[in-house]
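Lay summary

Proteins are chains of building blocks that fold into shapes. Our project writes down both the chain and a compact code for its shape. Here are two examples, one after the other.
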Amino acid sequence: METCDAVIVAAGSSRRMGFDKLLAPLAGQTVLWHTVDAFERCAAVRAIHLVTSLENHPRFAQVLTGFSKLQPLVAGGAHRHLSVANGLAALNPQTRYVAVHDGARPLVTPALIERSLEAACSHGAACVAAPITDTLKRADAAGAIAGAVERENLWAMQTPQTFSTALLQRAYARVLEQELAVTDETSAVQLLGERVQLVEAGDWNFKITFPRDLPLAEWVLASRR
């Protein structure tokens, strides 16, 4: 089995949550604990690099004890793409594949991580995603419906997003050199003209964004048990 390292991005401000959602209680632990635990339990993951703000290092180190794959915490940047770049810089030079994941997605499973890695091994780049099922509309500046958006072949990007390490490092070298801002790794790789294979999540894998997400995540974890 091919292996990968994980870069877990946990340097956000949680503005929409109103408090640090990564430390929010979830099924007897914290949101971030469940995220890290999934990668710890995945046999295909060799090392976990957690990227977070320096001010959070002591608190995160306190709640993330007992994880054998967790490496020294990495300092985050002012924006997500800068945090990911710092995480990539912390990788062992021999790392062939890397999976980048949002710290606020605690419902990821070892099986999904492995499926993402398998797709990356076959295609060089892979992204977990979910097909759009809602009706989509475009709004004008006043908040009124301005038109429809065809949902056929539309997907919502999730994580992990898994790549050949060399490819993702090349993509982020361009992002930094040209001072671009990308919201995910797929966007960075597409700047090189590379194709990214979609991997359907097939299960709950949403990002904790609002307080209402926590009870649902709690239910999902309980139902899996």
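And here is the second example, written the same way.
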Amino acid sequence: MRVTHLTPSGEMGGAECVILECIGVGDGWTGTQSSVVTLGPGPFLNAAERLGATTRLVEAPPTLAALGEAFVSSAAVVRGLFAAVWAFPAFFRRFSRTIADLVPHVIHSHGIKTHVLGALLSRRAPVIWHIHDYVGTRAVSSRLLRLLAHRCSLAIAVSESVAQDARRHLPARLPLIVVHNSVDCRRFSPEGRALDLDALSELPQAPPG
């Protein structure tokens, strides 16, 4: 099975670590051919290549790359969308061709921007939204995802808290499950040396209970 993972960033973040777990850390997904498409450059692409994934960079135009909703008003986001409109068609054609050339059986998206882009593809494999963020904190994107949810086959939330937020903002007909992020116990073990975080914080001890 060919799985294409989408992520907006080429940097190493939480979503990118999850993708690396899927494509090759430990046993990975046995029997899959993994590919990765990012909208920006960064060390994540090299990390994915070292694990055997095919990687593609479809760099977003600066106006689209700069769009974000964290700590930004809805009006500012809408203004940013208008600024990005002129560059979007050519960028989306490149994005669509890249996905088509990879011929995926499944498209596994890990970011709000790629959730939207994956859902907009005309001829596409089933799209899975892996939701790492609180959809409800993004007034504009939450509306876009709600409109496009019928083009998504499954949503995965990384926690019950994220799932509850998504259920409040996405249509009830969209299948949504919780899959917690894994921990590689060969790298992270409860045995051995440990930091005393209470002492390092230099804060008074918390009261009982």
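What can we say about the second shape? The chain has a mean pLDDT of 86.
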